[in-house]
């Protein structure tokens, strides 16, 4: 039996996120995206990052399908057909987003109704515009499709096969495994959650494992003397969820461009189709390999069969250890997917610096690749992931994003499909 270190649990199992304000926006697609992000990140009970991507996908796909049923610029996800005669695309966007959010957050109906009235007035949309009811019906269709996607059955009691052995993930304290069934949630675009399942983590006896072990032990400890202040800041910045960070990046890129309503709706929908499927793919791999986290690994370094890994029972990570298996990293998988969507749509250097503030820390990137590399590093600085897990997660996310962009919401050729 492995030694039990002093353990740290994740009080709020999802990464700390600061809700994006529902700030004034020049168009209803962006406005309701900000509203949706705010509602999702501030939801009670708190949603795990994987659940956040599903929530946002429901909203953004609903908006895309409603808008593009009228404009017919891009193929739809749910094939709603033509919008009704006289329906406005702005009204459809508002109706779809509002209906999806009220259905997902019924306790917020009053506040969302107030936002609806304000939005209609701001954009000069009549409450009698047929696009409003049409958007609601499109959202109802998406919600019905996802009602049987297995998300509701993803949380259950779980013990990893071989728990207690070296290399095998074991729950810390009384904190249950987080969403062990999320890998079985029906994907949005992927053929299955295992479609891009990576090979397993490095063998405990390998040089790669020893390298990763020594790195996180040195630079990811709570009181590391080797981690710089900037590296510590980076670790804390990336406590925010992928939804918070990459939605902020997408919004800033869109603000710097000149996209029409349909293209903005599509961009947000693709962002969350990729994010939602990346979460499913990541969780499929996590609970297939059940690899241990740095905290128990370092506590049991003398028992892993690798002479190059010295154990330390007193070692603690900078940030709280999450209650799910280590490999691959969920944050880098989501980030790889969302970053790649933005990069493939707008280029690695989209023409505007991306400047974001979360957890009281501001980061700025001139290229999207800078942001993705930063999160790979951040999870090592945090002491909660090995570098290989971060790199594999980012690669898996990129694979998911490329598949989504190749198969979903393609431009039309001028005729309805």
Automatic annotation (TrEMBL):
<feature type="signal peptide">
    <location>
        <begin position="1"/>
        <end position="24"/>
    </location>
</feature>
<protein>
    <submittedName>
        <fullName>PAP2 superfamily protein</fullName>
    </submittedName>
</protein>
<dbReference type="InterPro" id="IPR052559">
    <property type="entry name" value="V-haloperoxidase"/>
</dbReference>
<dbReference type="InterPro" id="IPR036938">
    <property type="entry name" value="PAP2/HPO_sf"/>
</dbReference>
<keyword id="KW-0732">Signal</keyword>
């Amino acid at each position: 039996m492995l030694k039990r270190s002093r353990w740290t649990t994740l009080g709020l199992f999802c990464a700390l996120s600061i809700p994006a304000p529902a700030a004034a926006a020049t168009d209803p697609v962006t406005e309701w995206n900000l509203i949706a992000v705010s509602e999702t990140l501030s939801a009670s009970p708190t949603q795990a990052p994987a659940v956040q991507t599903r929530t946002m996908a429901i909203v953004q796909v609903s908006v895309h399908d409603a808008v593009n049923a009228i404009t017919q610029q891009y193929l739809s996800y749910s094939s709603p057909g033509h919008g009704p005669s006289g329906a406005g695309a702005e009204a459809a966007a508002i109706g779809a987003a509002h209906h999806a959010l009220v259905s997902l957050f019924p306790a917020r109906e009053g506040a969302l109704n107030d936002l609806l009235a304000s939005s209609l007035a701001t954009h000069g949309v009549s409450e009698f515009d047929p696009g409003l009811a049409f958007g609601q019906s499109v959202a109802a269709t998406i919600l019905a499709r996802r009602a049987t996607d297995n998300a509701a059955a993803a949380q259950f009691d779980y013990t990893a096969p071989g728990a207690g052995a070296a290399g095998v993930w074991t729950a810390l304290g009384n904190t249950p495994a987080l969403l062990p069934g999320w890998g079985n949630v029906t994907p949005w675009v992927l053929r299955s959650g295992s479609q891009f399942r990576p090979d397993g983590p490095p063998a405990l006896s390998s040089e790669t494992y020893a390298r990763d072990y020594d790195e996180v032990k040195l630079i990811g400890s709570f009181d590391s003397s080797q981690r710089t202040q900037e590296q510590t800041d980076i670790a804390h910045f990336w406590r925010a969820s992928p939804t918070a960070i990459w939605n902020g990046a997408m919004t800033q890129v869109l603000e710097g461009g000149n996209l029409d309503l349909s293209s903005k709706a599509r961009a947000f929908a693709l962002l969350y189709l990729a994010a939602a499927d990346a979460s499913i793919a990541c969780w499929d791999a996590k609970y297939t390999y059940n690899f241990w986290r740095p905290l128990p690994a370092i506590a049991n370094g003398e028992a892993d069969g690798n002479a190059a890994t010295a154990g330390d029972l007193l070692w603690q990570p900078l940030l709280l250890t999450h209650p799910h298996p280590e490999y691959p990293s969920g944050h880098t998988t989501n980030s790889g997917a969302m970053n790649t969507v933005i990069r493939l749509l707008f280029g690695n250097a989209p023409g505007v610096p991306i400047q974001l503030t979360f957890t009281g820390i501001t980061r700025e990137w001139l290229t999207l690749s800078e942001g993705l590399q930063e999160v790979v590093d951040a999870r090592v600085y945090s002491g909660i992931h090995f570098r290989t897990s971060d790199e594999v997660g980012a690669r898996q996310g990129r694979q998911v994003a490329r598949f989504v962009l190749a198969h979903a919401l393609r431009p039309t050729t001028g005729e309805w499909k």
